[in-house]
Write a structure and sequence with these properties.
The protein contains 16 helices and eleven strands. It is an alpha/beta fold and 458 residues long.
Length: 458
């Protein structure tokens, strides 16, 4: 089933489809099979119909997401449905939806269910869940990426038009790369985090997975907005916009600073993506990636891991046996940091931010692989920390440096697994990044997610 937003919208506007008929079709298509461990709680047909029936008789043109099905990472609240963060003992049932979820429902979107994740959003692999490891949408032997694992796979397998994830260290980008999707990590504070279980509250953001950059931009327009109830929400006018028009410059790390972790195919795929960017007007400029890499190491090697502890401290201390072993190991490291360590790390981060700022004098955006390689589930189970660390090489610095970023699919390995790049820029360049990602998809995209449906510009 083609769930591209522009395609569904044309059907609704023509009268060829209604929200209730879409729900019936989608419910039958998804069925009750959850062998890939995508869902923690999928909504039943009658539960989805409650949302669909509210749209019947209304003008589709009045709702930007009229009848569009979406999935929700299960650390984000949906009213009346348990939120677990992939920890059954932690579960609670919220009375109201997260602000961003409610905004999407008000725009006409229909929730399909709550998706599986690396427990407490701690991981980039999609295997750290008592609900099972989420299988890659192209090859079940491989990881889906995480922590927003089920959110990505649900879209890639045409169970939802788009989904919400969260992104602190790369959780909204790595799963996009591994499932042939666009993954947009908005500027921190652009989307409300009210009703979202925090990982690192000062760095968290709600992210968007979509089949195309155009779809992601459509969702972003409805999802964003200042929320006075969220202490970390920001007005979207803090910085001047950059232009990524007919010509633009993009930074690429020095060859010695690129890492592909023994993957023999992804270096050539990255070079191919650079040529695709050049074909749409980009000029590549080599930059020193060292400040970005040094910043990335702070996220897990520094005291920011203590934020993960703070988010679930009472639960962690009273029910440690309920926490997934690798997750417990990581969060336990929080207690070794002192207040002095925290301030010293903040000073170091400030210095690195100043160093990284310099690069934006010469380039409009920065381009990296989203991930240097992809692992089999068995490889991650054997070396969970090392593999996860490698996957964060190009992602962990983003929120610490207050950047906006979009992961874009750009090619495939010989084994059929997708590869993608991430384009990033300073805060509040979200619309510009998605516009450029749309142009890039026109050069590189072949299919939508793992559906086999041909990509077409609407």
């Amino acid at each position: 089933m083609n769930l591209q937003i522009s395609h569904l919208r044309s059907l609704y506007l023509s009268g060829a489809l209604t929200p209730t008929s879409l729900v019936a079709l989608l419910d039958a298509e998804i069925g009750n099979d959850n062998a890939s461990h995508i869902w923690i709680r999928r909504l039943q047909k009658d539960e989805m119909l409650v949302y669909a029936q509210k749209l019947e008789g209304k003008n589709p043109a009045d709702f930007p997401l009229y009848g569009i099905p979406f999935a929700i990472k299960d650390n984000i609240d949906l009213a009346g449905i348990p939120t677990t963060a992939a920890c059954p003992e932690y579960a609670y049932t919220p009375d109201k939806s997260a602000t961003v979820v409610q905004k999407l429902i008000d725009a006409g979107a229909i929730p399909v269910g709550k998706t599986n994740l690396d427990q407490f959003a701690t991981g980039l692999v999609g295997t750290r869940s008592p609900y099972g490891a989420v299988n890659n949408s192209f090859d079940p032997d491989y990881i889906s990426g995480g922590s927003s694992a089920g959110s990505a796979v649900s879209v890639a397998l045409s169970m939802a038009s788009f989904s919400l994830g969260t992104d602190t260290a790369g959780s909204g980008r790595v799963p996009a790369a591994f499932n042939n999707l666009v993954g947009h990590k908005p500027t921190c504070g652009l989307l409300s985090t009210s009703g979202v279980i925090p990982a690192c509250r000062t760095l968290d953001c709600v992210s968007i997975f979509a089949l195309t950059a155009e779809d992601a931009a459509t969702v972003l327009a409805s999802a964003k907005g200042f929320d006075a109830d969220d202490a970390y929400s920001r007005q979207a006018n803090a910085l001047p916009n950059r232009s990524f028009g007919a010509s633009f410059s993009f930074g690429v790390p020095k060859a010695s600073q690129l890492a592909f972790f023994d993957n023999t195919e992804t270096p050539a795929l990255f070079e191919q993506a650079i040529k695709q960017l050049e074909a749409i007007g980009g000029k590549a400029i080599e930059i020193d990636f060292a400040p970005f890499l040094e910043t990335a190491r702070l996220l897990y090697e520094g005291p920011w891991v203590a934020e993960r502890y703070a988010a679930i401290q009472t639960f962690f201390e009273t029910k440690p046996e309920a926490i997934f072993p690798v997750t417990k190991q990581i969060i336990s490291n929080a207690t070794k940091f002192s207040a002095v360590d925290t301030y010293n790390a903040q000073y170091k981060l400030k210095a690195l931010q100043r160093k990284a700022e310099v690069v934006w004098q010469d380039i409009d955006l920065l381009v990296t692989p989203t991930a240097g390689t992809i692992y089999k589930i068995a490889e991650v189970n054997a070396e969970p920390v090392v593999c996860n660390s490698n996957l964060g090489y190009y992602t962990n610095f983003m929120n610490l440096l207050d950047l906006s970023a979009t992961a874009v699919p750009t090619g495939f390995q010989a084994n059929g697994l997708p590869f993608g790049i991430t384009i990033c820029a300073p805060a509040f360049q979200d619309d510009q990044l998605l516009s450029l990602a749309d142009k890039l998809q026109q050069k590189s995209a072949k299919t939508l997610g793992a559906t086999g449906i041909s990509w077409q510009k609407s």
